[in-house]
Amino acid sequence: MHRTTLTNGLTVIAIENPVADIVAARLFIRAGQCRETAEQAGLFSLLMSVLTKGTQRRSSLEIAEAVESIGASLGADAASDYSILSLKTVSSDFEAMLNLAAEILREPSFPTAELELERRLTLQGLRSMQEQPFAVAFNQLREAMYAEHPYALSSLGTAESIQALSRDDLLAAHQTYFRPDNMIVTVVGRIVPQQAIALVEKALGDWQHPASPLPALTLPALTPKSQRRVTVQDTQQAIIILGYLAGSVKHPDYAALKLLSTYLGNGLSSRLFVELREKQGLAYDVSAFYPTRLSTSQFVAYIGTAPGNSAIALTGLCSELDRLRTGVLTPAELQVAKNKLLGQYALGKQTNGQIAQLLGWYEAIGLGTDFDQRFPADISAVTLETIEAAVQHCFVEPYLSILGPADIVESLY
Amino acid sequence: MNVLEFPAPEFPSPAFPAQVVRLDSGLTVVHQAIEATPVAVADVWVRAGAIAEPAEWPGMAHFLEHMIFKGTERLPPGVFDQEIESRGGLTNAATSHDYAHFYITLEAAALPQTLPYLAELLLHAAIPADEFVRERAVVLEEIRQADDDPNWLGFQALSALTYQQHAYGRSVLGTPAQLNSRSPEEMRCFHQTHYQPENMTVVVTGGISLAETLELVQQSFSHFPPRSDCLPGESAQPPVIKGMQRQVLSLPRLEQGRLLMAWLGPGIDRLSDACGLDLLTVLLCEGRSSRLVRELREERQWVQAISGSFSLQKGCSLLSLTIWLETHQVERVEATVRDRLTELATQPISPAELARCQRLLCNDYAFSTETPGQLAGLYGYYGTIAQSHLAVQYPRFIQAYTPESLQQLAASYLSAERYAAVELRPD
Q1: Is B274 found in the same domain as B201?
Q2: To which CATH superfamily is domain A227-412 assigned?
Q3: Which domain holds residue B294?
Q4: Fewest C-beta atoms under 10 Å: which of B90, B91, B227, B230?
Q5: What is the pLDDT of residues B97-150, one digit of tens each?
Q6: CB neighbours of residue A144 within 10 Å
């Protein structure tokens, strides 16, 4: 792996993988949902969707044709902690695509007509989300847990905030955050690292960052306080989601919570799957997750079940979480969870795109690429005592979200 | 296997990078060593999808896929999952109309210890009566979850309308009433009929040699279940869409209308035509510069999104469009799509547009053959519906098209009058 910082502060990471004639690149901007105020929720998502739709030199269609005529892919997205342009090309087209990506980042024109189109599509996207029961139940859980914190809302924002965002808001966010000293570029594939770095230098090296420092990231503190939220919908399945506020990626509990979510929710042999699906036939989908976040994360367990079974499913889900508090994990179970997590971590680095994504992301959230080695070491080092401590910190104030037919959710509430 | 005949394009045939070995039992093994990877994948494909189901047994193939994981006389339920996952591996399965397949992905060194477990499950599924009842509840939950998804409901309605009485038109999940009428005995009969060597392809890719693979497969897949002879699957003729087939579904909780349109394509015996329909799908709706996305989403702004899909199947493939839009736009959007199809059938596309679509699909093919798991899936799929080596012919078939041959293809498959359409409307 080659890592370098250009004189303008841009971090470049290049890894050669000659196996396939493919180059994948990721251009990370260290700003995403975590930089949004409630009034501007959805700002980065909207910004990224308009970003690829015009530069000082090219129209939306010309950009699309430049990408699609060579069979490349160019994606733009906003996530909780970063925004990103993703490229995939055959090796010989990489330079052209990288130059296009640089042009998009440096000289977007944010055409008004394109902003209005993407605004309307975002509003429709928000409505479409209401069609998916899990999304509705999860959104209400997230709002309860995060209150004023930017993670409270879907990355699309709200209808009100999307209506209110102006072209000036997009320009201001671009001006503030899209600067070389706030960016990481990762290039992985059939390209010599020195050449990859030289191409990035050529495309982005003369981009000067503003003299002003980046604004400090200040996020509201969260105090866990148990809550229940319900939505009545006449669905075939009731959705029950249980959540706890949980440590960020830099929290001492991080590795232990990753192992606990693996133990509870990862795969066909996971605890929730075996107890609630295999033994009781309560669900098709039952699992747990604990996303890696720069700020306060959440530990979530969920189940979708026949409305008539929702009381027993809720009891089952709660008692599995409660059970952890009594320190029942055996050394063998901990070892299995470690094997699973580490094995799957290795399996998650098979494509050029996966590697470019992972290393760039670590750099973008301030962990550095060596987190790729630190993470497995931290996981291996977890003991039953570390698990116990994480359980006592995390599983205290449960947030509960229930969605289903009226009689069911009312009886549970 | 059937010998299939294809027109010979002018482009040289790429060498098939994998080995195909037919064992004495009749079992097919496909292997490709990939030196740079520490990962190995075993993906077992069985010609036991929903089209193998007797007419009275819809949902059986998929339900059996669930029950395979419920153990054998020697392997209690859950042991297999533990053995794979505690070694850091992944396992799962899927069922469609033409196949069921079961795969494990893990560190290459762990394959010799784990493949025997997968073989044991597949060949000796016990299908215990109590597990049958419990797992049926899980499948009923899967159906409930699908019934809450308007996209799934829309696609099922479209398939039923397009394929009519053909098994491709049925949901692989079956219905609760159909599943409740089945017994463990019937499922064992279905299993013993179809999980036989001549119906199975074991694909192994990644960091393991051919010799080691063959020895391992030979040992693991040696004792097949006693043969049974359950009712045969229906052998319905491929359907023909006569005129326009139309259905309007009003759904509660729908926030956004949909228009779904579908055309029948050829079976795998006309792979060149199928590849051409893939090209036409891309030309119509892949990317902002494609015809329908550009006109309907970007310029006229009549729709929120359009996606096109071409699904290659053994007997009869499907080209479908899904368009997200407000209900009041349906009429003019549908008329525009029909106009564009008429254009395709009457005017050759420009060489530049053809080149764009060809390059996009050939690159997509390269992008989707990057990992051992992707390769195993590709070889297994083609091996199950035809022959594995056809998988790598795909770019050649794509490259062979000319504006004229594509125009001819559009004229023969994509009628502006004969197709199936489903509208989803908010209740």
Answers
A1: no
A2: Metalloenzyme, LuxS/M16 peptidase-like (3.30.830.10)
A3: 245-426
A4: B227
A5: 999 999 999 999 999 999 999 999 999 999 999 999 999 999 999 999 999 999
A6: 18
